[in-house]
Amino acid sequence: CVGCVWFFGGFFLLPFFWLVNFVWHYNDAFLAEPFEEQPQFKRYVLRSGIGFIFSSVLLISWVFYFQTQRNFYNWDYITFNFPTGSA
Prior knowledge:
Layout: H1 2-9, H2 15-31, H3 38-69, H4 76-79
Helix pairs in contact: 1-2, 1-3, 2-3
């Protein structure tokens, strides 16, 4: 099952696979004439869409939190190089 491969590929930190799987296979899964494997195919395509949305919300939330709280937690030392000593 092609949708299955793309779905499981998304678990290897590649949520972009889930987006591609959902967009690429949506017509075949939901709008095409019925075929034998369609229920399983629909399930994987739908799960890919949900996985992409969930991982995107998680990533955007983390970036927003990191950017707004970095001064409070003094996280600038993680993101910037501060040279010490004299030239």
